[in-house]
Amino acid sequence: MNKMTKGAIATGIGVALLLGGGGTLALWSDSELSNADTIEAGNLDLLLPAKGAWSSNLQPEITDISTYRIVPGEQLTYTQSVTPVLAGKHIKAKLTATGPGTGTFADKTLTVTTVFKDGDEVVGTLENPLDSSDSNKSIKASTTFVFKTGTSGRQSVLAKHSFENVSYKLEQIAPQAIAAQ
Amino acid sequence: MMRTKTLLKASALLAAAVVLGLLTVQGTYALWSRVVPVEAGTIQAADFRVTLTDVGTDEVVDMVDVSGASARLQLKPSGPVSSTMPAYAGLKVSNVTDAGSDFTVQARVGPIPTTTGELADYFSMAVVAKTAPQGTAGCGPDDFAAAKVGGTAEMVLAKDASAVFCFQLMLAATAPEALSGRQAKITVPIIVDQL
Questions:
Q1: How many structural domains are present in chain A?
Q2: A131 touches chain B (CB under 8 A)
Q3: What residue numbers bound the domain in which A114 lies?
Q4: Which of A92, A150, B1, B156 makes a 20 to 30 Å CA pair with B169?
Q5: Which of B33, B43, B64 has its CB closest to that of A170?
Q6: Residue A115, CB half-sphere, CA atoms under 13 Å: how many?
């Protein structure tokens, strides 16, 4: 190998090493901050400021539901204030009660329903969902237990119905894309 | 061609697996939600409890026993009955429900008292309801001054209230003397309804 060849090989290796070093070969570049600020997520929460209270259509106030005994034709209502927390320009949510509870009443002798009202207006439904304007409002939740008048004989005497596994659920409704509105 | 078919099959299988996974997990589609326990406690139905007391002996039974069957209470009359001397018996009915609210019931003597025994054809019975304030006193001739023989009776009882059905047992003047000392049994149904 002559000197010329050796020199060419050494130069080639040197160029290859430069290429491996990366930035050494950098061309012009520039960078600027996007100024896109910060994205902040909204909020969804449900607060129960105080414990609710039971009442009867036959007796306005029930001080202790654990010692109270219901009879056919009676309607008990559990009333509780719930406070939704909703933050977000496009947030909408529905409010429901999860299940009627469990117990030993004969199916045909009872009905359990829950409704949420802002004043006289029923709210929290799919048709009238809550939004950020309802945030921190006091919404009245009323769960009504009806012991039907059609109960016959001694049906459901001493029966029990527990609300232990019943919850209020505030659930976001999927936002609609602008194009779809 | 064969390779394209295999690739299509693999893609379809993968897509099916993704859809199945999404459907199974469900939560994948969930948005924000918040669940708060209601803590409303437990509701309990009242006991529909009515007691029957023989005014003559103070024996008390629940109208329905633990198995749900109707109770039977044998009343002890005031004495033997003759064609000239009726006998009397009293049944106190008490509404002892544990209902939380007002709970009013109506008790009535059933329409068809049945009589068995050799005296059956000669017996008759009148009944009257005595309510408060003299509701729990014994029964006698004064209670039947205006009562019709064979009549029925009813009473309305509020929660914790009691009243008495008075029964007058009579023997017809045509009863043969040969039946003297014989016994007869009258079964009187008592029916209680919630009002």
A1: 1
A2: no
A3: 43-175
A4: B156
A5: B33
A6: 9
Continuous H helices in chain A: 3-20
Phi (first) and psi of residue A115, to 5 degrees? -135, 145
* Domains in chain B: boundaries: 50-194
Q: Do A70 and B44 touch (CB under 8 A)?
A: yes
Please give the angle made by the CA atoms of A110, A49 and A91, to the nearest 5 degrees.
85
Q: Which of A93, A163, A169 comes nearest B40 by C-beta?
A: A163
Q: Per residue of chain B (195 residues), give pLDDT as tens.
A: 556 676 567 666 555 555 555 555 444 468 999 999 998 999 999 999 999 999 989 999 999 877 778 888 999 888 888 888 999 999 999 999 999 999 999 999 987 677 777 888 888 888 988 875 555 568 888 888 876 656 688 999 999 999 999 999 888 889 888 888 888 888 889 999 999
Domain-located, residue A24:
no
With contact defined as beta carbons under 8 Å apart, do A74 and B44 qualify? no
Interface predicted TM-score (ipTM)? 0.79
Strands B114-117 and B162-171, sheet pairing: unpaired
DSSP state letter for A25 = G
List, in order, residues 6 or more apart from B101 with CB less than 8 Å away. A56, A58, A59, A70, A71, A74
pTM for the predicted model, two decimal places: 0.76
> Closest by alpha carbon to B167, among B156, B181, B153, B185?
B153
User: Residue A7 falls within a domain, yes or no?
Assistant: no
User: How far away is chain B from the Cα of A34, in angstroms, using its nearest Cα?
Assistant: 30
Relative to beta strand B154-157, strand B105-109 is antiparallel
For residue B15, the distance in angstroms to the closest alpha carbon of chain A comes to 24
CATH topology of domain B50-194: Immunoglobulin-like (2.60.40)
